[in-house]
Each structure stands twice: as structure tokens, then as C-alpha cells.
């Protein structure tokens, strides 16, 4: 009888799924002897840096690194909830506050790159080629040229807000007009900027590896104010008891070691180096 | 079909129950009977200001088939549902051997609807489900279900999905399913209304067989010829009341109420009937 | 502009070549969503059937609430599950955050109201048909629920498929509680989100088509099973 086949097929499917579910729950823990969770930013992941360096660390240490790539603001909040072992982000004041609050053990400089302002070929604000970011922002505001902001409290967003402040402009007043807050990650914001011919501030690593550039190009670069420092912090095991302090510290030590630093320096996209290691010699 | 004993003629006693000869009282109709006497007192059911059942007293006991006749809208099917405990009266009481109908005894009162309600299962599955609800042990269910299908000559269709069977087969299955529970009382609500003559004969044969096995039957119908074939007594209803209750032979040859006489004479009370029909369509 | 068509078909080439990473992602998507649907079925089917059968004060409100919960925003569910499973949350000790288990929980929460609400509708319709017959059997509420669920089984498959569709297509909840960790919690939808954020729009679109193709195949298989079985059981 067909009905019987149907029911037994359904029963079999349920049994398989139950087994799958059991497997799903314990599966990941078996995948490697040990794993740590790194709360990081989209730029390190989207640029491909982590995919490049992490397998080498895992191979050497047997520790699997699981990366949760979100905006710096969210990464710090997640880590402050104890949901991660290592924090790797780029917003130095916020990182120092994280350590001061007792959520992190110690902050180390890891590497840097720089921010750039990218914009459409038509360059409505006439800023292409400039190396004075504050002046460029003033011109954008004066021309009321569209500007896409991350608007998500990420490291890039914090940097952008600081630059506007320095330019003496309150872009929030023009929010919804020429100043457009996407509330999204770097990639999504770049997609949006390309879609509406808006300038936007991005880290160079994400920009270089971004595939949907259309006619966009770098408008402003080379200002010291566009310096972008990445830091790495072990989440404080004294405050968050689930933190895998030993494995997490091993990962940080490796990143800061000559081997880790050399590996960061060797990562290139289209022949361009994306991150520049600058950890203090240990 | 007509060879079974008819109850002896009795004086007409319109509403009161009719005494049943001792030799026809089945062995299991003892004082501990689960359902009989089935009794209604002061029964009223009203909707939209109309009394669809208007102060009915009625007692069912003994054996045989009681046919409830009357025009559309007279309240026949509703009375059946009230007596089966499927509908709550607005006033009055229904008792099964002295106590109100309850879930535990529900399966002792079988019910077959005009339009059979069959589960989306095989013929056998339908009977097995009913037996399960009646608390029959798992080991016995299949056996008893097969027996019931056998009696209804549905054995070859045991594995066929009930809803793929013909209208006649479906009604026979509904009846077989009800009989499988060995009900004390079986209520049939116009079970043959839309069936072909062969199917009607099948259903009637099953009903008579059940009576022989000791089941008391209440049968709602319109068909005079069928009533003559089946009925031991007739209850004639009109406008929510019982107009008369008479042994079958007396009823057909010598009805006691003028209403019944006109009914039998084929006077369909055309105007009133149409009016009642309209009202019936607008009330459930 | 990038070579859109080229990259678009790259996604299908990955499928054709049975690319192990892609298979892993597809496999995890199916596992997570199917598990979520199984859990949702275990809760939603009886719950929906109970609401269809039971009569109690506040039932109308419960039905409205249930129907509204069908539109639960995945992000909100994801956030709520994150707050529960976070090490700072009440269920942190389970250590489920950033595992497929967390994703299953989030999706089960999203899917359960869908299964329950559709079950209620289906079973209530059937209840209208069966109620009087079941009353003649003196059937209690539990036996009634059981009977109705069994008899509505093929219609309820549609409810489960609707739930599965919601689960497999959802990204907002799983990206928050799963973290889109490569080889651990990366599923079809989070991969698509990631590729989009990398600007790999063609690849993202291609993966989207793969996702749709998978959903269509699963529906097709189940529906053909259903229609074969239905023909045999209904009339």
C-alpha cells in the first residue's frame, strides 16, 4: 500500500534527522581538539586575511579558530558578554575602554592599514586626488554630494564621526538628505554607495578585495588622519569564566610573533599588501 | 425481509411507550442495561425564537425498529440528535437508563448520518478506529473489524480508502462501523435517502439483522414503502411535536391523528411544506 | 562592471563539480532547517490541533496571537536567542552559541508558529466535518486531536513545507546566533550575505539560485509523494 511506504519513508526521515540533530549538537566540538572564538570585524574577514592566516595557526597549534565577523561595535559588545575568547578589532579608544572595564586582559597593537574615501568617477565634490581628508569632507558637505555612512557604530563609523567632528560639520543634520546612514557592514555600505553614486569611507583592505567597484575609485588617501590601527585583546577569563584563556593567549602570541607578523605582511590581493604588521617586538 | 414477527396490535397510546412482549426482549436488556430505557422529558430546543422541538416526552425501550416520520422540518433529525446526546436541549432532560448521556456510554448508542462521515482511512481503518474509541483491546480490533465488514459484505474492500468507495458502499461502511461496536441502540438518520435500490436493500437487511441480534433501532425516514418494510412502530412528528405514536400496522391502515392521515394520503400540505422547507434550509 | 554572467555560472560550476565547501554549506543548511522543522512539528502540530479542538476563554486571542507570530522577524528571534544563549545570558552554561544547535533553536522558534497556525486552520476545517461523528464515539479532546492529526496528515505536510521554506531561506536569525563561522555555522543564506558584502554579487546570486533549486526539489519530491499517497487515501 502506498500509504505505508509514505509513512515509513516519513518515519525514516524523522529518524535520520533525529540522528543528524544529535550529530549537529556535538559535531563541531569534535571537528578539532580545541577551538576558540574570535570576535572580529568584517574587514579582516571580507579581505580574506583570516582565511589566509588561520589555517597555518591551526596546523601548528591544533587549535581551531572560529571567527564571528561583525562590526567593531557589535564585536566588542559580544565579547563583553563573554561570547568569545579573543577580540580583534580596529577602534583603539573603544578597545581601551573594553580593557578598562575589566572585559579584556591587555590590548596589543597588531597591524594597521589605512582608510580611504572612495567615490564615483564623476566626482561631484571635486575631491579626487586630495590627501587632506578634513578639507575633502568639507567640500562634500558644501556640495551636498551624497555620502554613505556605515551608521553602525563600527570602527570605520567611529573613525568617520571623528573626522566630521574635526571638520566642524554635523552630518546628522543632513541625515536622509545627502548624508545616508546604511546601518550595515562595510560591504553592504559599499554596495549601497555604488548604487547611489555616494562617497564613502572604507578601509583599504576591504576596498581592494571588493568586487563590485563599478566605476568607483579612490578619491582621498594618504592623510595621516586616515591611519587605521588594529588591536588584539584576550577576553578576561577572570570576568568571563568560559573564556579559553590558554588557547586564546596562544593565538595572540602567535599573531604577535615574527611568524604571525610575517604572514600578515605576506597577504596580498592583486599584488597589493592589505595589512601592515606593527606589533611591538616581544 | 418481511418474514420476521410483527408486534401484536395494541390500542393506540399516542406518546407513552408501547409494552413489548416478553419473548422479544433480548437477553442483554437487563436492569443493568447501559442505555434503555432511553427517555426524554419536557424536551425543548429553540432557535431564532422558534421551538424546533416543542416539549417532547418520549421513552424508548423494548426491541425492534421505531420509525420516526414526518415532513421536512418536523424536527425528526433534531430529536434523534437530542436523544443521542449530540445536541444539548434548551429545556428538559434526556436520560439513558436513568442517567444523563455520558462519554463512557456513547459507543453504546450508534449513529449513522444521512451523509456518512468517513475518516480519511481505509474501510478497515475506519472500523478499527471506532473500535479503538470504544476501548476494544488492540488484539481484538482487527478481528472484529473484519467480522463487521464481512457482515456488510465489504470484506473485499477492507483495504480500499473509504472515500474512494461508492455512495452505497460508504453508507454500508458507516453502518457496519456503527454495528461493530455492538450498540444497544442504533439511530439511523435517513440513511438511505440518496441511495440506489440495491444499496437501500443492503442497508435494510443490515438493520434487520441488527434488530435480530438485539439492537434497538430508531430510524428517521420519509419513505412509506420502506417504513412498511421495517417499522414495528411509527412515531409521527409535526412542527416539533410528536403527533402520534402507533404500532406500524395500525399506523399505516388506521392513523390516529388527522395530520398523519393527511401525510399518508399523500397530502403534502404543499404550502406549509414549502414554507417549512425554506425555514429548514436557513436553520441548521 | 564585473563579468556578471561568468561569475553567475561559477556558482553552478561549483555545484556541478560537487565542490566540498559548497556541499558542506548546503548540507548544514539542510540539516539545520530540517531539524528545526522536526522540532517545530513536534510542538506545532499538537499545539495547533489543540487550539482547533479546545474551547476555552481567550482562545480567539490565542489564535490571533499565533497567526501574528507567523510573521516574527528573524532578526528579533535571533537576538532573543542570542541573549538567552550568550555567556552573559541565562542559558549560557549550555555553550550553544555559535553552534548549529543555536541555529536550530532560533529557526525552530521561527517555524513553530507557522506550523501551529497552519495546523490549526487545517484541523479546524476538518473538525467541522468530523466533530459530530467523533461525538457519537464519545471521543475526548486528546483522542480527537490524534484522529484529526492523522487524518489531516497530507494537508499538514504543506504546513511543514511552509515552515521549511521559511527556515531554509532565513538569514537574520542564524547569522546572529550562528556567527557565520566558516566550516562550523556557515549556511547557504549566510554565505550569500557574505558574498554580497564582499561585492561578489554574481556569485551571491548564483548561490541564491542554487538555494531556490534545492527548495524547489525538496518541495517537488514531497509533493509528488503526497499526491501519490493522497490519491490512495482520499476520494
How would you briefly describe this protein structure?
The complex is a heterotrimer of chains A (282), B (284) and C (235). With 282 residues, chain A is of the alpha/beta class.
Task: Walk me through this protein's architecture.
- The complex is a heterotrimer of chains A (282), B (284) and C (235).
- With 282 residues, chain A is α/β, with parallel strands linked by helices.
- Chain A folds into two domains: 12-113 and 229-277, Periplasmic binding protein-like II (D-Maltodextrin-Binding Protein, domain 2), CATH 3.40.190.10; 114-226, Periplasmic binding protein-like II (D-Maltodextrin-Binding Protein, domain 2, 3-Layer(aba) Sandwich), CATH 3.40.190.10.
- Chain A is 45% helix and 23% strand.
- In chain A, strands 1, 2, 3, 4, 5, 6, 7, 8, 9 and 12 form a ten-stranded mixed sheet that branches.
- Chain B is of the alpha/beta class and 284 residues long.
- Chain B has a domain at 34-118 and 183-282: 3-Layer(aba) Sandwich (Rossmann fold), CATH 3.40.50.300.
- In chain B, 34% of the residues lie in helices and 21% in strands.
- In chain B, the strands form two sheets. Chain B has a six-stranded mixed sheet, with helices on both faces.
- In chain B, helix 2 (123-133) packs parallel to helix 4.
- Chain B is globular and about 50 Å long.
- The two termini of chain B are 35 Å apart.
- Chain C has a single domain (4-230), classed as MetI-like fold.
- In chain C, helix 2 (20-53) crosses helix 7 (153-169) and helix 5 crosses helix 6.
- The termini of chain C are far apart.
- At the A-C interface, helix 1, helix 2, strand 2 and helix 8 of A face helix 2, helix 5, helix 9 and helix 10 of C.
